[in-house]
Backbone:
């Protein structure tokens, strides 16, 4: 990838944010011989960059008249809830703020791009699309907000396809990148402070559809009000193919799976493609929506319905998303650490009936109030992290719960209680409905620890 940034030779590029994507950007720019000014507000990130051989420059002291471009880490707020002084200074000087996704698109402008966004399900959908395309031998790379940073992906050239998970933060920082297929799965309240409220969050998600090539395919879930409104607006647009998807009801002209049977009505024939309830690594209605989206993309790529069905059956699943870890003494252990908000947790809870739920962490707006209709599925709740007291109030006397503090204690207690109750369909479910940053560096680290703790439990293992 890096050699393709030679078009920036002679320019001075500022890089703000030195996490994984920021350091990948610095490596790519260094290979291209570009002068960089790199900074991060946190000491740990600066130290990591220095260990990798990069010099630092405090961008609050920068002369922006001598800087051509600012590569901004999407994780750093730049407008809401408070404008960052570096972003303010750059904008006053007319220096564009972009993210690494945009830089990839400029370097690989002849490649095809598939963009996937949504509040929930985008990681599964992204990897599922990658799985379906890879099976057909398509030269592709999968990354973005998921896995490898954009500038750590290989150069694919005009025959290649980039399958990119896109957060609302990244979408704010894309300028010229154009997509051949664009997927918006759903919108529920999340990251509201970062976008100045729900209206700003919806606008960021919807902006994906302002970046379509002529003849592109726009794929949008219509099971929530914000997305349905966006779909109605897109229906008035010419020059694109619009494909609605639903896991709740049959969609004339669209792709749907209200009862688990994926049905393609894009040609007006309501063709039954595959019973998704037989796809063991796509459990639950939320994954039926993901499958409908991936099917729509694959069909737009010219892949046959039979080949897609085979790919859906063979999909291996994704770590931290409904990941079966083990079955011990008849109790299943499921890692859904990626369920970082109540809506995502609801989708996991709906998959099971007798649940020993591990929840908590750094709370999101609204807490778990919306989950109360699902409380009858919960046998006992084991609370961790900062949200424990707040969640305890919501649970009240509706569900038995314990405040465990740490994940280690929660796993031990959940295992003990579930084993003692001896229910035939018992599931210990990590679906925290919270961010991880109070006790972990990421939801991945939280899920990895859950997996390690479960694997260390005593008892008889089975494959079910």
Residues:
């Amino acid at each position: 990838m890096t050699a393709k940034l030679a078009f920036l030779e002679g320019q001075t590029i500022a890089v703000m944010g030195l996490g994984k994507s920021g350091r990948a950007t610095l490596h790519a720019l260094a290979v291209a011989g570009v002068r960089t000014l790199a900074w991060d507000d946190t000491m740990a990130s600066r130290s990591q960059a220095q260990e990798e051989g990069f010099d630092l420059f405090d961008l609050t002291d920068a002369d922006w008249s001598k800087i051509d471009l600012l590569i901004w880490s999407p994780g750093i707020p730049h407008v809401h809830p408070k404008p960052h002084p570096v972003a303010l200074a750059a904008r006053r000087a007319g220096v564009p703020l972009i993210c690494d996704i945009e830089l990839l698109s400029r370097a690989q402008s002849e490649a095809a791009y598939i963009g996937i966004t949504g509040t929930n399900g985008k990681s599964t959908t992204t990897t599922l699309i990658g799985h379906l395309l890879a099976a057909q031998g398509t030269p592709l790379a999968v990354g973005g907000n998921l896995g490898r940073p954009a500038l750590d992906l290989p150069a694919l050239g005009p025959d290649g396809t980039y399958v990119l998970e896109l957060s609302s933060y990244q979408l704010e920082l894309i300028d010229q990148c154009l997509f051949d297929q664009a997927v918006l799965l759903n919108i529920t309240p999340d990251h509201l402070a970062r976008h100045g409220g729900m209206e700003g969050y919806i606008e960021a998600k919807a902006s994906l559809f302002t970046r379509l090539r002529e003849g592109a395919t726009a794929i949008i879930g219509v099971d929530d009000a914000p997305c349905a409104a966006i779909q109605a607006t897109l229906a008035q647009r010419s020059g694109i193919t619009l494909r609605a998807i639903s896991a709740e009801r049959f969609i004339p002209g669209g792709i749907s799976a209200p009862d688990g049977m994926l049905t393609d009505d894009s040609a007006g024939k309501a063709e039954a493609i595959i019973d998704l309830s037989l796809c063991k690594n796509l459990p639950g209605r939320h994954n039926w929506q993901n499958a409908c989206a991936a099917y729509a993309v694959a069909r737009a790529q010219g892949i046959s319905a039979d080949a897609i069905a085979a790919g859906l059956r063979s999909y291996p699943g994704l770590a931290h998303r409904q990941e079966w870890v083990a079955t011990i003494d008849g109790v299943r252990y499921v890692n859904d650490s990626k369920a970082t908000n109540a809506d995502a947790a609801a989708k996991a809870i709906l998959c099971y009936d007798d649940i020993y739920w591990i929840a908590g962490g750094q709370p999101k707006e609204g807490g778990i109030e919306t989950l109360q209709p699902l409380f009858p599925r919960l046998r006992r709740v084991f609370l961790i992290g900062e949200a424990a007291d707040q969640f305890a109030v919501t649970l009240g006397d509706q569900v038995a719960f314990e405040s465990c503090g740490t994940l280690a204690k929660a796993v031990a207690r959940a295992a003990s209680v579930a084993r003692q109750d001896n229910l035939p369909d018992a599931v210990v479910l990590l679906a925290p409905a919270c961010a991880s940053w109070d006790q972990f560096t990421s939801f991945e680290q939280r899920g990895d620890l859950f997996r390690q703790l479960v694997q260390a439990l005593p008892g008889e293992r089975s494959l079910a």
